[in-house]
Amino acid sequence: MCSILSFCIFLLVLAIAVILFQCMNRRKLMRCLDKERESNMMKGAFVGLISHEFRTPMATIKASLDLVAKFRDRLSTKEVDDSLKNVSDCIIRMTKMMDNILLLGKMQNNQIKFYAKQVDVVALFDEIIRDVDNSSDNRRVVMISNIGAKCDLMLDPTLIYHITSNLLSNALKYSREGKEVELHINLDKNLLILKVVDYGIGIPKNEVKNMFNLFHRCSNVGNKSGMGIGLFVTRQCVALHRGTVTLQTSENVGSVFTVSIPLGH
What we know:
Layout: H1 2-71, H2 77-108, E1 117-120, H3 121-134, E2 141-145, E3 152-155, H4 157-174, E4 181-188, E5 191-198, H5 230-240, E6 244-250, E7 254-262
């Protein structure tokens, strides 16, 4: 009798275990399906976003080239130059977007690594400012530094380039007309501290916590172009450099992004 009872208890426990196992698998399967659905939705939104962001500059390129092709004999040299500059600006803009998209893909596949080497940071930041200025309608980045005319530091120049160029490009994009963007560069003990200061539209207080999320764009950007990738890429690059990035902002006043990079690691 005892053996039969023990066997029945064993079967009951086994049945409960099987049921629990099936429930766990079902929940796991549902979570996987939810993640797959979310992933597919994000992919669809991403494709739509890219299509939208590329359509405008491509339309501008076509219109500018059509204008020159049809009315070349009637256009002044300045009008031709302006049309060709529109084409050049659009190509630079699309190249910047593609750079961020490719970098994002590499990050998600863990293909971006940290490679430090001796870098002349003054020359590096001069190059970054020159590139950002060339892609902007108004050249208005001002560098304020306490590190002298030449300074060699152990850094990953590629990561520093992506960090600084993304922050400066955003600052220029959302600044008010005629306002300069400031790049402050300081050495503080074993830290390289970068501050990008703009006097633009600022960020709504309730959206600050989402600023570094992938694909997030603020509600007050209006018709300014963008894909919500740059700040996400910036934060990932800062993390690879074992640094931190913080944000201070006030809507309709401006923003300050501060990046702290530890040296010698």
